[in-house]
Design goal:
Layout: H1 5-13, H2 18-28, H3 34-50, H4 95-109, H5 118-130, H6 133-145, H7 161-165, H8 167-175
Helix pairs in contact: 4-6, 6-8
Length: 183
């Protein structure tokens, strides 16, 4: 719905200022969805390209940063981390922390090191929401302790970072399923 000239005249007669009328018009405009905004930007770029203009594509930041920063409250281990005044925040576990610990362990054990990808970040955020820092410490330690996961098996298979990120494997790691000697 838009404000037509008759409606603007009526608002002015009632004492509404031009600024108030502009605010009213903006408020009445329907909010454009992110899909509509992307579609409009695409059409503008396509039109500019047809007209021979040099178009530098804008990269719009993602509307939902849940992949980068989990919205859940910071995960912490279960010990008390409060200072004298109780204001110290518990430690926050980030995907980069887990990757760093994995790569340290992998370097010592000859396992493949990993790099962060969007899919790995998404999976790590899911595990972080479900488990404590102690669980991550235990899971990575279990990989380090297990001869089977380090490649001492009939196929020479070794665990990698993606193995750690699988929900069922992660649970088995923290439960000690892989803490058996190699056959």
């Amino acid at each position: 719905m838009s404000l037509n000239a008759a409606a603007l005249r009526l608002l002015a007669a009632k004492g509404l200022t031009l600024e108030d009328a502009a605010e009213l018009a903006e408020a009445m405009e329907p909010a454009r969805s992110s899909a509509a905004v992307r579609q409009a930007n695409y059409r503008e770029r396509k039109k500019a390209k047809r007209n021979g203009r040099d178009v530098t594509r804008d990269v719009t930041p993602p509307l939902n940063d849940n992949i980068l920063i989990p919205p859940a409250p910071p995960l912490h281990d279960r010990s008390d981390h409060s200072g004298e005044d109780g204001a110290e925040a518990p430690p926050t576990l980030l995907p980069e922390h887990v990757l760093e610990v994995w790569n340290d362990m992998a370097g010592r054990q000859g396992l493949p090191k990993a790099k962060m990808t969007p899919e790995r970040r998404r999976k790590l955020v899911a595990r972080i929401r479900q488990h404590s820092i102690d669980d991550f410490t235990e899971a990575i330690s279990a990989v380090e302790r297990s001869p089977f996961l380090r490649g001492e098996n009939d196929r020479g298979w070794r665990a990698d970072f993606d193995f750690l990120l699988q929900p069922s494997r992660f649970t088995k790691l923290i439960e000690g399923t892989y803490d058996r000697p190699a056959n």
